[in-house]
Amino acid sequence: MNDKVKLDRHGVIGVITVNSPPVNALSAAVRGGILECMKRAIADPEVKAIVLTCGGRTFIAGADITEFGKSPKSPDLDEVLTVIENSPKPIIAAIHGTALGGGLEVALACHYRVATKDAKLGLPEVKLGLLPGAGGTQRLPRAVGPELAVKMIVGGDPISAEVALKNGLIEEIVEGPAAGGESFARKVLDEKRPLRRLRDDDHKLQAAKADRSIFTNAVASMTKKSRGLEAPFAAADAVGCAIDLPFDEGLGKEREAFLKLVSSDQSKAQRHAFFAEREAAKVSGIPEGTKPRSPARRARSWRRGRSRTASSHWPARRSACRARPADVSSPSRFRRCSDKKCCWRAPRPAWRTCPALRTLPS
Question: Residue 32 maps to which CATH number?
Answer without folding.
Answer: 3.90.226.10
